[in-house]
Amino acid sequence: MIRTIYLARPRGFCAGVVMAIEAVENAAAANRAEGRGELPVYHAIVHNATVVQRLEDEHQVHFVEDLGDLERVRTELAEQGRELDDTVVFSAHGVSPKVREEADRLGLATIDATCPLVTKVHNEARKYAREGYHILLIGDSASHQEVIGTSGEAPEQTTLVAVAGHRKQDPRLEDPRTVTVPDPSKVVVLTQTTLSVDDTMRTIEILRERFPDLITPPRDDLCYATKNRQDAVRQLAPRCDLFLVVTSDYSSNGMRLLELAEDLSGNARRVESVRDIRPEWLEGISSVGLSSAASTPDDLVQEIVAYFRDLNPDVELIEEGEWENITFRPAKRVPAPAA
Ligand code: SF4
Questions:
Q1: Which of 226, 227, 251, 257, when mutated, tests ligand 1's pocket best, judged by the most ligand atoms within 8 Å of its CB?
Q2: pLDDT in tens, 94-128
């Protein structure tokens, strides 16, 4: 029987996710109020299936992976007497300059919901590329939207590097122990914002040993939300018989929490929601830890707490750690460039 729930704090939405979701909700609401069309968004606004589904259902938002698909969506809507707006929202993960150029070419207004902490890495990539450096970009997958966006700032001068110790290595990424660069005296390392803190530091150390002149930005690129959520799991997981991480499997920061919880508790599971919990997981278990990715709505976590309370009304709830107090400025609509 579950006697204790350890609830990680912080967990769930970070400031970047809040800003991005509000950008979509506010733009969709303004469109409705002004009689404009339904809102298109480039890529999942954040990496959580529930968030995406809710925006589709409640705000008639249309997600596309290619701006070239907007014409098809526009035609399909027109057949139903509906319209698509000519403003597109860019997701929290950021986009490459190519996508911005395509939006301009298509005459789209834009709302850039890129997290400012991702934008900071883009700025670094541009700066070092301008100064003639080769960029080693550590990421967890060549297909991750953030990696595509950042490497797109200087594709000719960027090599994607895998995280040392990462469970599922993407073969398209270079091994940090063997990667080569054109000039070892002009090389900088940048990273995706949502990686494992420990594995990323180890990877940078490997690169530093191989390239003694390696430049690391003044503050590493891992974001505060990634670090804080990993710290909270690090505190709680060793005390738990079972650790649940509420995340979609394509959330990088959520999957890193799961791996950390597995390492520290020896028994961790990923769930999208309470519906994924299997009764057999709870056999012989008395303490369960709970955390969630930076893109997971907290009501999904609270449903799990309620589920355990139903099983045992006397269950003790221990919530440890500090909430964050960070907010980002709202994203604004930028008109299409003059034709
Ligand atoms: Fe920004 Fe970090 Fe949140 Fe990603 S996880 S949106 S980088 S604060």
A1: 226
A2: 999 999 999 999 999 999 999 999 999 999 999 99
